[in-house]
Design a protein that fits this description.
About 15% of the residues lie in helices and about 40% in strands. By secondary structure, it is of the alpha+beta class. The protein is globular, with a radius of gyration of 24 Å.
Length: about 280
Amino acid sequence: MVMTMNKRKNYILQILLIATCLLMALSCEEVITIDLNSSNPKIVIEGTVTDQPGPYTVIISETADYYNPEAQPMISGARVTISDSEGNIDHLSEISPGVYETDSLQGILGRTYTLLVEANGKTYRAESTMPVAIEIDSLYFTQEKRRPHQNKDSYQVVCVFTDHSGKEDFCRLKVYRNDEIELSYGMYNGRLTDGNTIEFDRIRGDFELNDMVKVELFSIDEATYTYYSTLKDVLASDPQRMMSTSVPANPVTNITGDALGYFGTFTVRADSIIIKK
């Protein structure tokens, strides 16, 4: 069928519009791409306080060439303190290059902890309040449907816990299979599940009979949740892991002073299960 003149004009206009959009997308992509090899070094601070017995550590380093992370230098000689909302303060000792350890501090539910770091002539600060713990109610497993060419049964582990009513809960789950990490960043946000019993079923690792599966449930604050969630996205876009060709951004931090990393306080609950017939 022969196109009318108007239809032909509309068709050409559509093609031009699509081409223009593609060019704009390519231009935007070039603008946001950064050269990680030539980025100015930044301080990286990673510190945690939990409700488990200390000591707790703060690790201080400096960014290096993204594609050569083994060259990441540690920062020695920093002054590091952690204080709580009850007036207790702990001056951390450097136990190895860039690794600082508390002496007497103990993490307690509901207290707010403040990290201060003085390094390279600058001061960095972060604050975190330790949330109430979410307890693990139970663990159970279900048998997965056998996939083509799979000669063994596989299983899925489910972690059951109860979200606090009237409170916004944030959690991270770490899962171990026979003492080796199987899942590092299982993230839970309770915004839409207030007070509900949760069956967290995103624990997939092709578990097999006689595997011992351990689940750690971390109750964390919103800032730590945001850090871990964006870190998970960064790892998913890491070209060295061959999952994407996009350049990773920096995870969102709660540390002031243009630092990278995070300072978080959280509770830890753990349970384990052995997969049996």
